[in-house]
Design goal:
This protein has about 130 residues and is mainly α. The chain has helices at about 5-25, 30-40, 45-55, 55-70, 90-105, 110, 120-125; strands at about 75-80, 80-85. About 65% of the residues lie in helices and about 10% in strands.
């Protein structure tokens, strides 16, 4: 392999890692994860999600917009409302199941991580 080919592969790999990081960022908020899990049960309106999850309408709408921009959810109009659904449901649920398996293997290490754990999450929210 030439030096130029190696550089091209490095650029492609870096772009792939950036895209993966962006995807995982879409799942990085507990409220977004709750919305994703709820949409795995079927289509819902924003008002349904607010009632089921105990979140403010503006919060749900902002998170749905983020998930939509990531290509993870979509909506369709029904009268004056929109019905939201999870895209690629089987793949998303496989990813979440794998995350749960990995969390089981790491125990409390992820939650206790000083950079990304529970304490860091609470600090970020302030």
């Amino acid at each position: 392999m030439t030096a130029m080919e190696t550089v091209r592969l490095d650029v492609v790999e870096a772009a792939g890692m950036t895209a993966a990081a962006c995807l995982f960022h879409g799942f990085s908020d507990p409220s977004r994860l709750s919305i994703v899990r709820h949409l795995a049960l079927g289509e819902h309106r924003v008002i349904d999600l607010t009632a089921h999850l105990g979140l403010a309408q503006s919060t749900v709408s902002q998170h749905l917009a983020c998930l939509r921009d990531c290509g993870l959810v979509s909506s369709r109009p029904v009268g004056r409302a929109s019905m939201w659904s999870l895209n690629h449901i089987d793949t998303v649920m496989d990813l979440l199941a794998s995350a749960e398996k990995l969390l089981g293997l790491t125990g409390d290490a992820v939650a206790l991580c000083p950079r990304y754990g529970v304490d860091a999450l609470h600090e970020e929210a302030r």
